[in-house]
Amino acid sequence: MAITVNGAPLELAPGSLAAILEALDYGDAIVATALNGDFVPAEERADTQVRDGDRVEILAPMQGG
């Protein structure tokens, strides 16, 4: 399927948001996720299906001062 991840087009096998994160080597990393502009909590990623044309945003925490 064709999706957009952080603004970049990608071709990946259909699956859950958790599976997409695993395929992109995020594994158990602490990140925030959104699907088509809607926040998806970590506990809902396995049940959230990503479909052709969807937009996924993955944000890692940043430290600063």
From TrEMBL:
Pfam families named among the record's database cross-references: ThiS (PF02597)
InterPro entries documented for this protein: Beta-grasp_dom_sf, Mopterin_synth/thiamin_S_b, Thi_S, ThiS/MoaD-like
Stated name of the protein: Sulfur carrier protein
